[in-house]
Design a protein that fits this description.
By secondary structure, the protein is of the alpha/beta class. The protein has 15 helices and 11 strands. About 40% of the residues lie in helices and about 15% in strands. The protein has an 8-stranded parallel β-barrel, surrounded by 6 helices. Strands 5-6 form a two-stranded antiparallel sheet. Strand 7, helix 8 and strand 8 form a beta-alpha-beta unit. Helix 8 packs across helix 9.
Amino acid sequence: MATPKVIVQLYPMMPTDGEDDRKAKRPIGADRDLYNKVIHEWTDIIKEADSMGIWGCSTIEHHLHSEGYEVGPNPGVLNAYWANHLTNMRVGALGYVIATNDPIRVAEETAIIDHLTNGKYFVGFARGYQSRWTNILGQFSGAQATASDGGEIDRLNREIFEERVQMVVDCWTKETNVLDGLHYQAPYPIETGVLGYPGTKIAEEAGAPGEVGANDSIQAVCVVPKPYQLPHPPVFIGVHKSPETIQFCARNGFHPCYFNPTDAVIELSKMYVEEAQKAGHNFKLGERQNIVRQTRIAKTHDEFERRVKKYDVDIFKNFYSIFSNHNVDPAENDNDAAFNSMKNTSFLTGGTVDDAIRYWTGIFEQSPFEYITLIWHFAQQPKDEVLEEMRLFMEKVVPELEVPDYAIAAE
């Protein structure tokens, strides 16, 4: 038996002394001195996490958060930088909002990071739920933010998402590609290929076979470099509500990342195994699956409550609780209501060490997840407290959790 692989997901939140202070310092997301301090302290945390034996560290892709809640516009840059400071820990993104990105550019960037890390890299993709920026950066693909409601916008978002994830994988794994999708094409225009490129002679003689076609046109693309890992880095996919996302993950052997309430997570983990079997994958319950939770561990329940109110209520009340795909009750613009709503959702875990052990062993008795991703709102929560909670989880909670050795089982 083994223990689950822990991923640390730090949500870059510019620190203030509560909501009123955040308003007084508007727009704190544009405070260059504060961001500089936070991003370098973030590296300190990542290095400490490496020394604790944590499996991986990751970050998000969110844009335009001028209020300072989630200042995380470029996960690839951070991953590449962190890799230079780590010995054993993997780096990754949870994840690229692929409907707003060019799939060739993402395939190139992630392949380079895979080489920089010598294969200690994983790639996550998400559908995007924040119209504030998704609708802007996705304007060229037609992507809009999804509410996972089964409506026309949701259907279109999923169509673009699945198309582009598959294109990234094809760019990683196939020597040449003709990307003829409903929403993206390469070479472009697809009907003729690229005409008038002066370098076709050497491309035909030294490039990948099939790139140059009739009339010296570019008829296919060979995306380079290829990733270090074979066939490609592990792929993680964010899941909030949709069974369709589980089916997509299961068919392709991708790793679903569950942000759902506990009951739904257990049911989806079983669905993943069933759907994977239909596609010819013999995965065990929990294998390749990642449960995502925000955690707080304190010496007393009073200290637990203080930390949640100081570090998490602001963003929960004004941000998370108002998006339907987060599966939580609206906080109704009230701090106490926000705190009670957070306590009532199984997405927030913790309390004392004993509380944390009780919660996580209860989960793993039902489904032994291969991965656990833990979220902290750094730097709203100070570095020393983040490290304290991280260390308690690794030293006290993880040893109580057993999973099969999935790496052996999968071979």
